[in-house]
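Hello,

Our lab assistant flagged a job as stuck in the queue for most of the afternoon. It eventually completed. Since we weren't sure the result was trustworthy after the delay, we are filing this so someone can double-check. Below is the sequence as submitted and the structure that was eventually returned. Let us know if re-running is recommended.
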Amino acid sequence: MFCSPYDDRVNHRLMLEGDVNSRDPAKDNRNEDALRIRLQLFQRKEVKLVLVTLPARNTNIYAMIKRAADVHVGIHTICTVAGPQLVEGERFRGIKSSPQFLGNLLLKYNLKLGGINHHLHDHLDGILRKTTMFVGMDVTHPSTGSQNGAPSIAAVVATEEPVHFVNWPVSIRLQSSKEDKLAREVIDDLDIMLKERLDHWMEKNGKLPEQIIFYRDGVSDDFYDLVKTIEFIKMKQAFANFGPQYEPNLVYFIVLKRHSTRFFPSPGIDVTDPSLLDSNANIKPGLLIRDTLTRKPGDAGFFLQSHQSLK
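-- returned structure --
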């Protein structure tokens, strides 16, 4: 395994104990200790980001690297996998040199080092005329194959500035073990995690957001209203930490991604018109469908074609 610190011309080679293609290396505490010492060395040299090249795919080693870097040391890492490469007739093992791969790699570099990879279109200025924070919330439950007793995990991510909406720092908590399904759907420490995100916003911007737009994932249909009601109470508790005068505008979306609804162009539409359809004759991103057919009584449901279809 090679560790190449950003802004350092020297490659640091770290030999793992055990077979890299087995689970042994990540289970051997000597490897994680050695990795942690190496990362601490980089940190003392004020290295901001480390590129790690692995000889083979191994999810356990990847988890070990991220645990050592993110949890114990606090340094950014990007992991790549070396493979057989051919450049100008010479064969060697290394990372891909294709423009697409290197472009994606540089986007990760830029974002992790505080750069801006994208920005919103100017026509959204009217919608976001108030300083706005975007918040994403989800609860992940143990899946088939998880260890016995594995807990559910709740996460809250939020933007940290009101212009580009690029970086989304996170707060994470373990959910308490509950048998009741509704209780497991509600984020236990939402008030604490939301306060952490608002504290970070305040630190970056000097004032609190005037408007917060929440995207809530992981709620089944049966619990929409109850989860929304309980979590609104927790949001108010978070706001109360900043004084009684802090009452931002709130928008709360519950997002359902896994559904079987599909949309197709109407008969008679010119499938070659690039202003209407993409190159595969699919509907372009941005289509909003809001009609009585898309809503249940009492809610404001809608469908949004939020990204481009792959095929």
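-- support follow-up --
The delay was a queue issue, not a problem with the job. The result is valid. Confidence is low (pLDDT under 50) at residues 6-10. The longest helix spans residues 224-240.
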